[in-house]
Specification:
Blueprint: H1 2-13, E1 34-36, E2 45-51, E3 57-62, E4 66-67, E5 78-83, E6 89-96, H2 100-125, E7 130-141, E8 144-153, E9 160-166, E10 172-179, H3 190-203, E11 205-206
Parallel strand pairs: 1-7
Antiparallel strand pairs: 2-3, 3-11, 4-5, 5-6, 6-10, 7-8, 8-9, 9-10
Length: 208
């Protein structure tokens, strides 16, 4: 129970526990170059997988990872939360709810616009307690197109990696890999986190 409470707190702090979406008006930046990543996982993966409620996307977990049940604490837009055995990393899969404003942004700006919507959602939910790191990037991994961005809690060194993508039925999704310092165990080094993140992303499949 104590671990569940700590995971819940971590998700609250990174902005996964609200339904408000407010998008700030920003100047449209120059499109970043597209990043090409290997469509194959870089670490051993398991047969344990997550499936969206509509069945239009699936993804697989790394070996020995498992899902956690946050009971009634989980919000409706988050449909799966998984952790590594050490409870130092959490994989969160969520839906980005559609409305006319979000659809308009995605129509004009594509996946980069959806990534900005996703980050603005986290920023709003945490009352500005998170900050965007680096640049928004578009990624092509096999046949899947995504947009990636990173963020962290203000004053914290731990960095969350996130990608957003669109399924064949035009549903918006986000996957985030969140480092957690809740058990006293050391968070994996950045290069290992990058491999885990890329490996999970490589298993994401959407219907076309």
């Amino acid at each position: 129970m104590r671990i569940i409470i700590k995971i819940t707190f971590c998700l609250v702090f990174t902005g996964f526990f609200s339904s408000c979406i407010i998008v700030k008006h920003k100047e449209k930046p120059e499109p970043p170059p597209e990043v090409m990543l290997s469509p194959k996982p870089l670490i051993p993966m398991s047969e344990e997988h997550v499936r969206s409620k509509k069945g239009d996307m699936i993804a697989f977990l790394p070996r020995d990872w498992f899902f956690v049940n946050l009971e009634e604490k989980i919000p409706s837009d988050v449909f799966a939360v998984a952790v590594n055995p050490e409870y130092t990393l959490s994989a969160v899969f969520s839906i980005i709810r559609k409305n006319d404003r979000v659809d308009s942004i995605v129509s004009k700006e594509g996946l980069l616009g959806l990534a900005r919507v996703a980050f603005d959602r986290h920023e709003r939910k945490t009352a500005g307690a998170v900050k965007h790191l680096g640049k928004y990037e578009t990624i092509q991994m096999g046949n899947l197109n995504l947009a990636k961005y990173d963020f962290s809690a203000t004053g914290e060194a731990l960095k969350t990696h996130s990608v957003v993508f669109v399924s064949s039925i035009n549903q918006y999704y986000e996957f985030s890999l969140i480092p957690m310092n809740i058990t006293g165990k050391r968070v994996p080094p950045n290069d290992e986190i990058d491999k885990i993140f890329q490996s999970i992303v490589a298993t994401i499949q959407v219907q076309y």
